[in-house]
Each structure stands twice: as C-alpha cells, then as structure tokens.
Amino acid sequence: MQISELVRRADVPLATVKFYIREGMLPPGRATSATRAEYDEAHLERLRLIRSLTIVAGLSLNRAKKILDVVDHPEGSIYQMLGRAIDALASGPSDDVDPQRRYPRAEAALASLGPAYDTSDHRMAAFAQLESALLAVEEAGMPADTARLRLYGDHLMAIARAEIDGMPAGDPRAAVQYAVLGTTLYEPVLAAIRRLAHQNLAVDA
Amino acid sequence: MQISELVRRADVPLATVKFYIREGMLPPGRATSATRAEYDEAHLERLRLIRSLTIVAGLSLNRAKKILDVVDHPEGSIYQMLGRAIDALASGPSDDVDPQRRYPRAEAALASLGPAYDTSDHRMAAFAQLESALLAVEEAGMPADTARLRLYGDHLMAIARAEIDGMPAGDPRAAVQYAVLGTTLYEPVLAAIRRLAHQNLAVDA
C-alpha cells in the first residue's frame, strides 16, 4: 500500500508517520521509484503498536522506544522480556531506579504484601513508584498499615495472576505487547471501577 | 501563633498561605494589631488539608475548592457527602459527566461488574472515567470481556469495602477527608503493587 493508505488505516497523521520513520521506530517502506515507497501489513501493525503506546497509553517517546527495543530483541524467556518491558514502563524520570537510593517505605511495605511478593530484587522500577506513592500517603497522614497493604497485595496478586494467564502463548512479541499495553491501559480501568465501588457503597449505606 | 510559625509547621510557603487566604480556602487570622494576626491549631489543620489535596494529591485548585466546599457544608448523611466528594475528584474536565452524553462502554461493562454494582445512576463522575478508560483499551485492541471485568469488579469491591470500613466514624468532616484523600492517594499505591505482582510472576515463571 502507499503511505496515504497506511496513514488512513492506522489513523495517524502523515507528518507523525514520517517522524516515526526518521526516529527509527518504524522501518521505511520499500522504494518502488524515486518518489514512491510501498508499505505492507507489517508496517500497519507496527504503526498501530506505536500509536497504542504513545497516543492511547500516553507513554513518552523515550519509554515507547524502550518498549519497542524489548519487542524487537526477544532475548531470554518471555518472562525476562516481560520484566524488562515493565521496567521500561515506569511513568517518570523520578521512577527510574537509582541503585544508590534507598526505598525505606517500599522495603518495609514489601514484607506486608504477602508471601507471593519476593523481597530479593529491589531494582524494579515499580519499587521506586511504590516508595513515592507511600511517601504521599504518609505526608497526608493517611494509614499504610500491614493489614491494608496485605489486603491490597492479596487482591492485586489474584488480579495479576489472571491477567498473566490471559497472555498470548507462543509468540514472545505478542506476549510483551499484551503485557505492556495491559499494565498501562487497565490501570485507569481499575481506578475507575474502585471509585464506582466507593460510590456504590456510599449510596447503599 | 504568628503566620511565620504557621508557615513553618505546615511546610507551605508564605506566599502560598496568603494566596489560600485570598482565595477563601483558608480563613484569615484574628487581627491583634494593624499589622499582626494570630493563627490557631484549626488554621494549621486546614492548611495541612489544603496541602494534602493540592501539593500531595495533585488536585487542581478548582477540584480542591469543591472538596473543601463538601467538607465545609456537611449536609445529608456521611455517605451522601462521600458521593459528592468523590464526584468532585474526577481527574479532568473531560471526566465531568455530561447528562447529554452516552457512555455505551461503561454501561455495557457495568452489567459485568457483578451484583454489588448498581446500574441505576449514571451521573457518577467515575462513570465517565470508566468510559474513557475502556475506549483506550478498545483502541489498543486489548480485551475487556465479561470475565475480566467481573474479576476486577469483585476484587475492587472487596478492597473498597475494607477501605470504607476503616473510615473514621462520628465526625463527618474527618470521614470525607479520609475518603477523598484515600481515593486519590491509594490509587498510585495500588498501581505500583499491581506492577510488582506482574514482575514477581514474570520472575517466578
């Protein structure tokens, strides 16, 4: 297909498609003349993935590139790839794990989360996120006691298990795409459902 | 206490304290001379609440004012106040519920969430949030089937019940503060724990 059709089918502006090609995120088309190039279904699928990561999931260009790098270099087991992809997801520069930094709140919390949570690897990006989140809770004077953390840990582990069970088997690229998009895109779904639950409990009481 | 002590104890800059007074969010001190005013513990507590809502929880000034309005006008039952407070929390202008708008994805999803979720009131702000979140999931080609939504609905209702049970009884103001800060500040905690769960499952497999 020509680039005009690619643009239409992926619902991404022409200038943005050209930008992704210049940035090396999307491979260029196959040149058929001095001014024309041909694109195929693989280009369309790739463009849809980039669109999902950036426009739909709202990841920065840098984060999206890291995820594409994991998808493009399927090294190790599917689960090692997953770990690298979820690390690349962390939502801001402050979420990058600094090996010199300590995470006292997250470390203390981990023991409360239940036996399914491993305490041996603190280099996970989610660990730095948990530290910031618990700091905000503490600054507002809200509780983050063992009972509450254990409650959260048990229910979220059950949710995560079911999510991982639904991952496409066999194709590592598809599995990583599923995991990365799922981690990001279901977060707002979970937040909205929790608020609905609060409102329902408020109305019923 | 003088304003300098208020500033120090609440850890909010002087200019910001003056701004909150001008905006009517914080009552002025009791004038003790032409140039001096006296502040008390109630001022400090109010200032800490404003700080939690704006600086810690990251709410806009407009949203924070709506919450303060609920806290300042404890009308109806605690649960009616909670409903109003959670409505005021919605994270962006697009989350405001438009009575003319339809929420087809959220409406369809609600039936999957389980019997504890009421389908009669669609004017909740969380309803518009759920619609946007499900639209993003759909655009990325990810599943949002009945089994997944029911899984989320059941676990989040269990979490929400325990959270509401922990609410301070007796004092409506304290209850609303707890609910509003809790709804907002535990969301990042829940998101970080879910990511840790995914990473643990990836490592263990």
Task: Tell me about this structure.
The structure is a homodimer. The first copy, chain A, has about 200 residues and is mostly helical. Chain A is built from 9 helices and 2 strands, in the order H-H-E-E-H-H-H-H-H-H-H. Chain A has helices at about 5-10, 15-20, 40-55, 60-70, 80-90, 105-110, 125-140, 145-165, 170-205, and strands spanning about 30, 35-40. In chain A, strands 1-2 form a two-stranded antiparallel sheet. In chain A, strand 1 (about 30) and strand 2 (about 35-40) form a beta hairpin. The longest helix of chain A is centred in the last third of the chain and has 33 residues, at about 170-205. The mean pLDDT of chain A is about 85. At the A-B interface, helix 3, helix 5, helix 7, helix 8 and helix 9 of A face helix 3, helix 5, helix 7, helix 8 and helix 9 of B.
Itemize the secondary structure elements and their pairings.
The structure is a homodimer of 205-residue chains.
Chain A: H1 3-10, H2 14-22, E1 30-31, E2 37-38, H3 41-56, H4 61-72, H5 78-89, H6 104-110, H7 125-139, H8 146-165, H9 172-204
Antiparallel strand pairs in A: 1-2
What's the N-to-C terminus distance of chain A?
A: 59 Å
The greatest interface here is:
A-B, 78 and 77 residues
Number of helices of chain A: 9
Order of strands across the main sheet of chain A = 1-2
| Stretches with pLDDT under 50, minimum 5 residues of chain A | none
- Tell me, rounded to a whole number, the average pLDDT of chain A: 85
Shape of chain A: elongated
Main pleated-sheet profile of chain A: 2 strands, antiparallel
Order of helices and strands of chain A: HHEEHHHHHHH
Q: Which structural class best describes the helix and strand composition of chain A? A: mainly alpha
Characterize the quaternary organization of these chains. homodimer
Strand content of chain A: under 5%
Helix content of chain A: 55-70%
Number of strands of chain A: 2
